[in-house]
Every structure is written in structure tokens, then in C-alpha cells.
Amino acid sequence: MLGDLWVLMVEQSWALALLKGSVVTIAIGLIGMALGFLVATPLAIMRWRKVVVVSQLVDGYSILVRGVPGLLVIYLLFFGSIEWVKAITAAFGYQDSADNAYPYIVGVVAIAVISCAYSIEVIRGALQAVPYGLLEAAQSLALPKGVTFMRVTFPLALRLALGGINNVWQMTIKDTSLVSVVGLQELMRTAAIGAGITRSPLLFYCIAAALFFCMTAVSQTAFSSAERALDRGFRGR
Amino acid sequence: MDLGIIAYAVPFLVIGAKTTLLIAVFGVGIGLPFGVAVGLARCSRSRALRRLCDAYCAIFRGTPMLVQVFVIYYGLAQVSFIRQNPVLWWMIGDGLNAAILAVVLNTGAYTAEIFRTAFLSLPKGLIEAAEACGMHPWHVFSRVKFPLAVRQALPAYSSEAAIIVKESSLASTITVLEITGYAKRLMSETFAIMDIFIITAAFYLTINVVVLTGLKLLERRLSFAR
Amino acid sequence: MISSNLIKSAFATSLLLCALATGASAKDGVLRIGTEGDAPKFSMADPSGNVTGFDADIANGICAELKLKCEFVVQTFSSLVPSMDKDRFDVIISGLGITAERQKKIDYSIPYATTPLYFAVAKDSPLAGLKSLAQIEKALQGKSVGVVTGTTYARFMEKRMHGADLKTYDAVTQLTADLASGRIDVAFADSPTWMDFLATADGANFTRIDLKIMAMDAPDVLGHGMGVGMRKGNTELKTKVDAALCKMINDGKVKEASMQWFQDDYTIPCK
């Protein structure tokens, strides 16, 4: 049993392949999440402020992306835009390099589009949950609107949003498995190939799960300390 | 898009949609109360209970659901004790039951996280006031804590409900013929991959628009007039 | 923020390197081949990305005949056809069964091989000794039968063997796992699958029903064997690939590959 494992992992170098897949997963997950969060914050604020038109558009985008399977988002982004990109890059003479980098770009953008939709809801929910009394207190101190937002609303909302953001991140890192359809060999795809051709699906999927667990365990520690930091003044009686 | 393909695919997908809805209804119906209970347990004073529930959440949120489905269906089936125990085998022997079990366990972990943060964010003064009135702990929960927490948790939970509908598609990997299960058959039969994909997505979108708007209306109803 | 910028630039650099190393663009002198990479014996991508198996041998043979360089693009099965449509690669070689229904979407080369199909059951099953398809169909009433999704033989079960409770699996390993655990009574798959499974410890209690089913027995559902998939209307490429395949079949190259991977000759003669 252990001997077999050694042969598979080391001699046939599946361990290395799985690690490489993990690196792709982490890279795409981190960039996609960061990009999604950066775009989501202003959109969520506009949604919270009920800015006309924008707020309805944001709502529509969020319902659409959250409503359809993630796989479709990436299929449409990739297969829907590839002809345009071909035409544009060919016009500038960069066709070869663009062709090759394109799947990576679409992969990251698709993950960002998905995580953004979920982040909007989390941030909006948190902004709405900030106790009104505190804002009134800020107003009665005659704080300018900008200062009220940066010093009172946003830090308080961030604390409330943390759990939800953690959820979105855990989902996003696992959603990266979708990018395999554009030909990227991330962790789950590597595991699926290994499972298929070595005929040990449980072994490969459990290793993949363990690797995912390690990633989320590390991020969980980061989130827990962030939570402790933002919780100052709320703990204890 | 080819109209013939739509006419051919839709009747199959309608049959699949019933199974998808069945899994989703169980996912919300059992997963929500279960998740709330776990979320509450994670804020409890008992360290052992907290640790246990933290570990459960960490495992189910930290690993891909596909793996959870596989381990529950294929992995547990290799244990002869489970194969011989009629109750356990009923739970995982059938693809649909195993899929529902996996969805409930998975959504339970995410729901617990959503409600844990919601419970933690409750203003202390209100709970203290309820306790000071001499309210029974159950009443403190059902009349004060839960109604307040649900308002904070609802936006995040509506996302989770949409995810349940979509994640139920993983049941197709363990022989359950829900929307995606039929879609896979149709795709390999006709090779009209994109067409079938878009029709399938329209099914999920329809279900989820109903779910998301429903929860949005609920959210509006529950929100305090400001 | 600094660290995230660092990661971004590191990622961008690695993208560029990957792009340079595994370029998959339309170039002269290169045949780009889409394949699934996780089908044992047919299309197997190893950890370093090389593809081996029967399909890979066929692909390399075609490239040699056409004096082109083979470039494999490994993708999941469901993304192969749309990717070829958008010119991510020129052909699909992934054990594709040729059926009339699929020919509406893509063009095929001439068929080059076909694998015989068998039912497998537990050794003590009453079905084990059956001899004809009619007997089997009758015995399958109300029994659960497993097949792999996306195969022509899944379609055969659906259209031809009425009354059986059909279960579809994403992969052969899942099908055999459920046969072994007793969730399904019967499984239906190609001969290489059973050759492997019956030799394992799990497969010791199982046997093939001694009835060989070939594509020619029901071409309307089982199709006409495996072919190379191409974009619709690419007649120039089709002529070339057909000629190359025909030469390989007549030279015995296809037989050689088939014997190597399946210990049996599955070649379809070239007309």
C-alpha cells in the first residue's frame, strides 16, 4: 500500500504535478478574489446608497451571476470573446502571444466576476447592519460625510462583513477548478487526470481535498486574527 | 441557436428540474435549522462543543464539495460495516439520498458560519436586557437573538441558497439524473455543447431568480423602517 | 498591497513563461490535437503533460504521415468541441464515436478502430450464462445497469434495452466501483475496461457475459467506430487525415498500436 503510494507520487511524480496544480489554484484564487473585492466595494457602496440606475444594474448583475452555474460564466466569457480578441490582436500583430496568454486572463477574470457578485452582497449586507445610532452620533458631532464613512461606517461594516468575506474566499478558491475548461491544469483537474489514468480516484481526490484544506486552514488563521483585531471593544462585558 | 435542440432538450430538463428542486428543498429545509444550531453551538460556552463544531465547519468549508460527494458515495461504500447496516446503507446506498446528505452537510457548514457572525454581531445590550427581564434562554433565542440575527444573515444566506441550487448539480456525478445529469447525456448525444449549456443555465437562472427575489422580498419585509 | 502586487507580477511572469513553453497557436507545420487526457489506455496525460495511449499513437502516426509536428492540448471532454470550433486546435482525437447525430456538429475522418462491448455481472448472477441479446434484454427488466455518460453504448442501452434502470457514471472507475459495491446489478462497457477490472481484486467475483456486441450490430445508435473529429467544412484537412489514416490501417500501424494497448486488434479496414 505505502509502496504503491511511493511509486505513484514520487516515481511517477504525481506529487509534483499536484503541487504545481496547487500553485495555479492559489495564484488564480488570490488574484481573482482581490480583483473581485476591489470592484465589489464601490459597487456595494452605490447599491447601499441606492444610487439610481447603477443600483438596479448592480442588482441585475449580482442576481445573474449568482443564479447561473459558474461553469457557464467561464464558457461564455471564453468562447464568446475569443473571436474578438483574435481579430484585435491580429490587427496589432500580437496574435501568437495573445493566443497563449488568453486562457489565463479569461480564467482570472471569470473567477473575479463570480467572486465579485458574492462580495457585493456580503458588503452591502454589512453596511446595512451598521447600527444607525452610531451614525447619528457621528452626525451630531458634525463629522463630514467622508470622515463618517471612513472612520465609522466602513470599519464597523468590515467587522460585520468578515465572516461573509471568509465564506466568499473559501468558495472562490474552490471555484478555481472551473478554469480547467479553458485548458489550465489546476489542482482539481490534475487530480482528475491522475484519478482517471491511475484508477485510484479516492486517493487522488482525497489528496486534493487535503491540499485545499491546508490552503483554507492557513487563510482561516489569517481571518481569525483579523476578526480578533476588528473585534476589539466588542468582546467581554 | 437551433430551435430543434431546444424542443428536444427542454422536456428532459424539466424532469431533471424536479429532482434539482427536491435536493434544494431538503438542502434548505434541513440545512438551515442544522446550520443555525451549529452556528449557535460555535458561540456556546462549552469549549468541547465549540471545538467539535469548528472542526466540522473547517472540514466541510475547506474541501471541494465534489470530493465530499465522492467520499460519501464511493468512499463509505467500501466500508463493509456500512454496507451491512440497513439504515446507513439506506442513507448512502442510493445516489439521491447520498446527494441530499452531502448537500445538507455542506450547506450546514456554510450556514453555521453565516449565523455565527450574525450572532456575534448582536448588540449586547439587547440580550442583557432580555436576560434582565428574566426571559427563559429559549425565549431569549427565539424572540430576541434569532429575529435579530436573521436580519443580518439574510443577504449572505440568500447567496447560500442559490449556491445550494447550483451545487446540487454535483449529484449528477453519483448517477442522480437532475438538470445537469440530463444535460450531460444530451451534450454527448448531440455535441451541441454550447446550446445545451445555455438552456441548462436558463433553468438554473429561473430557479435562482425566484429564490433570490423571494429572499430579497423577505429581507425588505424584515428590515426595520429607517 | 505590496505583497499582492508582488504576487501579481510573479504570476504575470509565470504566465508569460508558460505561454512561451506550451504555445498552442495556429502555426505552419504543426497539427494541434485536442484530447481529454484522463481516459486510461486511450488518452493519458502524464504528470509532465505528455500524452500516451492508443489515441496518442494514432495522432503521432497521422502527424508522421502529414510531416507535421504534433502538439497536444489536454482539456475536459465537454470543452473539446467548442474549443475546436473556436480554433484552439485543429482536430480532436479522443476515442470519439462517429454517430449521425454528432455529425450535425462536427466532421469526422474515416473510422479507424472500434472496441467490442460486453456486459459484466457477478459470477453467481443468473445472467452470467446468457447467450443472446434478446435473453439479456428480458433478464434486465427492472435491474439496474451502469454505463459511462457520453459514450455511444450509453445511448445503446437507452434506446435499445428498454425496461432496465439505467445509471450513468462520469468515469469507468466509478462504474466499476459501484459494480463491486453491489449498487448496480449489471455494467455495460468496452472490452479494455473489463480486461482491466476482472484482473483486479475487486473484480475477482465478476465475469463478462459471453456475448460480443460490435458497433456494426447497431450502427444507428452505436455509430461506426472511432474517428478523428474536425471542424465542419474543413475538407482539405479531412482529405489529408483520411489518406494518412488509410495508409496507417493498411500498413498495420493501427493494428500495432491496438495490440500494444489492448492485446487485441480493433482496426476497422479502410475501404
UniProtKB/TrEMBL annotation, chain A:
Q: Which UniProt keywords apply?
A: Cell inner membrane, Cell membrane, Membrane, Transmembrane, Transmembrane helix, Transport
What residues form the membrane-spanning segments? Answer: 14-40, 61-82, 102-120, 202-223
Q: What is its main location?
A: membrane
Classify the protein's membrane topology as the record does: Multi-pass membrane protein
Q: Which residues form the ABC transmembrane type-1 domain?
A: 22-224
Q: Kindly give the SUPFAM superfamilies that the UniProt entry links to this protein.
A: MetI-like
Its subcellular locations are: Cell inner membrane; Cell membrane
Keyword match Kinase: no
Concerning InterPro entries, the annotation shows:
AA_ABC_transptr_permease_3TM, ABC_transp_permease_HisMQ, MetI-like, MetI-like_sf
Q: Does the keyword Transport apply?
A: yes
Query: What Pfam families does the database record attribute to this sequence?
Result: BPD_transp_1
Q: Which family does it belong to?
A: Belongs to the binding-protein-dependent transport system permease family. HisMQ subfamily.
Q: What is this protein called?
A: ABC transporter permease subunit
UniProtKB/TrEMBL annotation, chain B:
TM region positions: 20-41, 53-76, 88-112, 192-215
Keyword S-adenosyl-L-methionine assigned to the entry: answer is: no
Q: How does it sit in the membrane?
A: Multi-pass membrane protein
Where is it localised? Answer: Cell inner membrane; Cell membrane
Q: Which Pfam families match?
A: BPD_transp_1
Task: Quote the SUPFAM superfamilies the UniProt record gives.
Answer: MetI-like
Keyword Transport attached: yes
Q: Where is the ABC transmembrane type-1 domain?
A: 17-216
Which keywords accompany this UniProt record? Cell inner membrane, Cell membrane, Membrane, Transmembrane, Transmembrane helix, Transport
Q: What is its main location?
A: membrane
Domain of life, source organism: Bacteria
Q: In which family does this protein belong, per the annotation?
A: Belongs to the binding-protein-dependent transport system permease family. HisMQ subfamily.
Database matches in PANTHER family: ARGININE ABC TRANSPORTER PERMEASE PROTEIN ARTM, MEMBRANE COMPONENT OF AMINO ACID ABC TRANSPORTER
Protein name according to UniProt = ABC transporter permease subunit
Organism this protein belongs to: Rhizobium herbae
From TrEMBL, chain C:
List localization entries: Periplasm
Q: Which residue numbers delimit the Solute-binding protein family 3/N-terminal domain? A: 30-265
Q: Which UniProt keywords apply?
A: Signal
Keyword Transmembrane helix belongs to the record: no
Origin superkingdom? Bacteria
Q: What Pfam families does this protein map onto?
A: SBP_bac_3
N-terminal signal peptide: 1-26
| Predominant subcellular localization, coarse grouping | periplasm
What is the protein name given in its UniProt record? Transporter substrate-binding domain-containing protein
According to its UniProt entry, this protein's organism is Rhizobium herbae
